[in-house]
Amino acid sequence: MHEMSLAEGIRQIVEDAGRRQGFRKVKTVVLEIGQLAAVEPDSLRFCLDLVLQGSIAEGAVLQIDSLPGRAWCARCVETVPIAALYDACPRCGAYQLQVSAGTEMRVKELEIE
Length: 113
Fold this sequence. Notes:
Layout: H1 3-21, E1 26-34, H2 41-51, E2 61-67, E3 69-73, E4 78-82, E5 97-101, E6 105-112
Parallel strand pairs: 1-2
Antiparallel strand pairs: 1-6, 3-4, 3-5
Helix pairs in contact: 1-2
């Protein structure tokens, strides 16, 4: 389950930000996760509940904003929405797609006390 290592990375980002900026308590952690990022949000929530215990973000509300998948279609010569990696173009049916969005994951925002 790679969500555990992702949760540990998020904890490190939160703790590093707290040290740099001098805050001691995080109320909300906002994440952006692309639909194509191969991250299971429920598993990540479970892992974060465990990993954030004893940290400055213990008990913080976790908000996950989903980002849609998009790809450049070489046949259509335009960007199209896609729901999964290796999907065909929804417009022309070609598989000549280059993913351009939806694989990212980042800590977008921390609400602090």
